Amino acid sequence: MVEADPRTVAAAPAGVARARAGIAQGLPAPLVALWEVTDGLLTDAGTAVYAAGCIGERNTTYEVAQYAPGFVLVGDDSGGRGFLLRADDPGSPVFSSDLGDLDPADFEVEAPDFASWLEVVCPGPLPGLVP
């Protein structure tokens, strides 16, 4: 029996629906597109893209809606730095910030868009998403 690549197990529609309900400002379209291919990622270097089932809890824990309105925390580097997208902008750059300082004035641009950032943090193709 051949095991499926864990990077190609899509998020369950019910999980995506719960994620939508848990993020008041909405979910970035590129993140939802990723979930159609894989329900989150964890790279060898420790970079995580949150799964549909935990993104609401992460955004609540870090009080993203209060400190960075209009942004969604989509992942972290396993070392205290978070990665964020603008909720309402499908072409949003990927921003990074210390998770203890979610002031958008202090955000750094990591990549011009989500797909470009994924190509850097997760080398190799994600079938159906990144060529």
Mean pLDDT across residues: 87
* Topology as a string of helices (H) and strands (E): HHEEHHEEEEH
Pairing-aware structural class of the strands and helices? alpha+beta
- Residue stretches low in confidence (pLDDT < 50, at least 5 long) are 1-6
Strand neighbour order, sheet with most strands: 1-2-3-4-5-6
Rg calculated over all Cα atoms = 14 Å
Strand content: 15-25%
The helical percent reads 25-40%
Shape: globular
Characterization of the model:
The chain starts with 12 loop residues before the first helix and ends in a 10-residue tail after the last helix. Strands 1-2-3-4-5-6 form a six-stranded antiparallel sheet. Mean pLDDT is 87; it is low at 1-6. The longest helix is centred in the N-terminal third of the chain and has 10 residues, at 13-22. It is built from five helices and six strands, in the order ααββααββββα. 32% of the residues are buried. The protein is of the alpha+beta class.
Features:
single chain; 131 residues; alpha+beta; six-stranded antiparallel sheet; 5 helices; 30% helix; globular
